[in-house]
User: Which sequence fits this backbone?
């Protein structure tokens, strides 16, 4: 992490969000490309880097009344736990599979990027799900005009992901969820900067839409990720502004609006749908005193049911998932979310010995994090619901090859209702091949203490199942490597 801090401090512009090529998984260390980067080469070169997270996960549950030939303990793989990625309950403590391979070819002026990704590995899968084989996840061209114009200016054109409001110093944070919003579009993004003394200003604008939409007559099923023809062709326009002072403090302002005005909806003429986001965030990179992020977001939805996954709010993709997870089925897609979040990371050794800190010594790292959102909806059952989650993680690096870590998460899905609350306690043993190695092997146990109305999801697509008891114990062994 110390090496990453040194490299990041030389960046030309403060980061408004995560770049499309950065790993799209929870809390990965930063990707450090090897060899000559295209942005530093006058001739065309190939840059290849990636990220692997490969976990084995097993959920354990006591069978209430085992019959002859049945064991008293059942094993679930994947675990039957309330950790659906698209819902507020997700904290990312139990690792999910992720493979990402980034290929970049070009020079300091123009380059092409193709990113391959997958959420499952067919040889080890119990069944083949095409949706988990993402294939070419992002593909775009980058034109860097900074040298020509003597000022930072970069243009990206193509299909790419934009994630705004990352709570971590170098990643999306402990929850793996961008606080402001995420966009998934084909279009353009323009980033420009200007430096005035110790202050650097940055402005980013993007416009994009879908590459295609579900045609009329398409039957929602597993192979098409349960696509609905009632979701219209959607577009997103977004604008971001930031100012950073001396690599110490940064302030960002964000505006995103996504809309649909399609006449091909099988159900007939419908009002235009729109999801609009206003956000502000700040981060303090205070050297020995750690890294602090805080942000606040206002999301407004109007007839949102027809807006596609071109935009994501708290991992909920498009209007349909925003309705099912937050606004409620009787809302008509109308409502709002007021969301806030913060994360603070601190190295105790760096705090005490700042100038001597190299990352190559025993260290205790502390992380505090939390997110909350208040729902306003036209659905009375969802209106006024306040969701909150928070946690703490402690990691003690004892040796160059060994560390111990523990994490505690608490999630409240509906204010003071303890039946919709859960706590997760997760100790881990971590193994590495060196102090600053790019590998990690983790052996983890997670204990879930859930209220009576906290439901795991079963079926295809996954839906809350009140008839199934969630697993209380989860074991996982994972290997991670990045380059």
Assistant:
């Amino acid at each position: 992490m110390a090496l990453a801090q040194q490299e990041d401090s030389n960046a030309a512009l403060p980061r408004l969000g995560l770049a499309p090529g950065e790993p799209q998984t929870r809390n990965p260390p930063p990707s450090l490309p090897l060899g000559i980067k295209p942005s530093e080469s006058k001739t065309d070169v190939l840059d290849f880097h990636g990220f692997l997270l490969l976990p084995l996960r097993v959920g354990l549950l006591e069978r209430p009344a085992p019959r002859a030939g049945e064991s008293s303990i059942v094993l679930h793989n994947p675990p039957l736990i309330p950790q659906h990625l698209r819902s507020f309950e997700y904290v990312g403590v139990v690792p999910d599979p992720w493979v990402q391979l980034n290929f970049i070819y070009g020079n300091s002026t123009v380059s092409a990027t193709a990113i391959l990704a997958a959420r499952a590995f067919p040889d080890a899968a119990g069944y083949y799900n095409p949706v988990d084989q993402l294939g070419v996840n992002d593909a775009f061209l980058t034109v860097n005009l900074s040298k020509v114009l003597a000022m930072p200016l970069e243009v990206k054109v193509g299909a790419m992901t934009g994630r705004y409001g990352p709570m971590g110093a170098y990643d999306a944070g402990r929850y793996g969820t961008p606080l402001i919003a995420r966009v998934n579009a084909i279009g353009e993004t323009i980033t420009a900067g200007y430096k005035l003394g110790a202050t650097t200003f940055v402005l980013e604008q993007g416009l994009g839409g879908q590459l295609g939409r579900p045609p009329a007559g398409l039957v929602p099923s597993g192979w098409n990720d349960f696509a609905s023809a009632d979701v219209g062709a959607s577009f997103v326009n977004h604008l971001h502004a930031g100012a950073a002072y001396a690599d110490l403090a940064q302030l960002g302002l964000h505006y995103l609006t996504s809309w649909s005005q399609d006449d091909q909806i099988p159900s007939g003429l419908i009002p235009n749908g729109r999801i609009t986001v206003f956000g502000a965030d700040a981060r303090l990179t205070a050297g020995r005193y750690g890294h602090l992020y805080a942000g606040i977001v206002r999301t407004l939805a109007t007839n949102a049911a027809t807006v596609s996954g071109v935009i994501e709010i708290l991992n909920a993709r498009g209007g349909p998932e925003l309705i099912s997870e937050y606004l409620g089925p009787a809302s008509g897609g109308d409502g709002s979310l007021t969301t806030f979040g913060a994360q603070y990371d601190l190295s105790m050794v760096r705090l005490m010995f700042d100038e001597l800190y190299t990352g190559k010594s025993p260290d205790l790292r502390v992380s505090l994090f939390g997110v909350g959102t208040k729902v306003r909806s036209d659905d009375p059952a969802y209106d006024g619901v306040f969701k909150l989650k928070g946690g703490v993680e402690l990691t003690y690096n004892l040796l160059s090859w060994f560390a111990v870590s523990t994490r505690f998460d608490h999630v409240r899905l509906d204010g003071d209702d303890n039946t919709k609350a859960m706590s997760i306690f997760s100790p881990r043993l971590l193994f590495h091949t060196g102090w600053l190695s790019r590998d990690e092997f983790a052996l983890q146990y997670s204990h879930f203490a859930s209220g009576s109305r906290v439901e795991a999801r079963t079926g295809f697509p996954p839906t809350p199942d009140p008839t199934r008891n969630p697993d209380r114990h989860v074991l996982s062994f994972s290997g991670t490597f990045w380059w």
